[in-house]
């Protein structure tokens, strides 16, 4: 019997809220709203104020932020996505080497360059164009320097 497991992609970052905002805008996702859970735990004294912040116009976890697909289910009590989801966690060390894993953003035919410019407007930068026998694509970096491809 084959079973299906749920998953999320966790990405280390210096500013998880900025990264969640960038990737939500890039992919048409939503920044998760965990404010109800955060407020509930604060009121119960279960978490310290220092573990929270205000981001995207609401109370949030200081060191975690996520972007989720708008059509996927989510837990109404916590705001946590239960489907396609990118979770950004704050880490103290900066990115220093090339990613071992990256996101490919697929565009409709003929729209690659337009989409790349839109992503630049959100804070990405174009690193290089690749043109190989198997195809062509652009390599970009998100606001924290994580490489991703647009094809």
UniProtKB/TrEMBL annotation:
Family annotation (SUPFAM superfamilies): Glyoxalase/Bleomycin resistance protein/Dihydroxybiphenyl dioxygenase
Tell me where in this chain the Glyoxalase-like domain is found: 9-150
**Know the name of this protein?**
VOC family protein
Instruction: Show the InterPro entries listed in the entry.
Output: Glyas_Bleomycin-R_OHBP_Dase, Glyoxalase_6
One Pfam entry for this protein is Glyoxalase_6
User: What PANTHER family would the database entry show?
Assistant: CONSERVED PROTEIN, HYPOTHETICAL FUSION PROTEIN
Lineage at the top is: Bacteria, Bacillati, Actinomycetota, Actinomycetes, Kitasatosporales
């Amino acid at each position: 019997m084959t079973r299906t497991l749920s998953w999320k992609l966790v990405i280390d970052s210096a500013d998880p809220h900025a990264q969640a905002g960038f990737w939500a805008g890039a992919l048409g996702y939503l920044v998760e709203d965990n404010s109800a859970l955060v407020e509930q735990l604060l009121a119960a004294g279960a978490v310290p104020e220092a573990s929270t912040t205000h981001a995207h116009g609401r109370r949030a976890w200081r060191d975690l932020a996520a972007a989720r697909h708008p059509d996927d289910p989510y837990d109404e009590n916590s705001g946590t996505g239960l489907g396609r989801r990118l979770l950004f966690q704050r880490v103290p060390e900066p990115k220093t080497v090339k990613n071992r894993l990256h996101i490919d953003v697929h565009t409709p035919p003929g729209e690659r360059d337009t989409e790349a410019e839109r992503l630049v407007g959100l804070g990405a930068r174009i690193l290089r164009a690749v043109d190989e026998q198997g195809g062509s694509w652009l390599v970009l970096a998100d606001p924290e320097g994580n490489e991703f491809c647009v094809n």
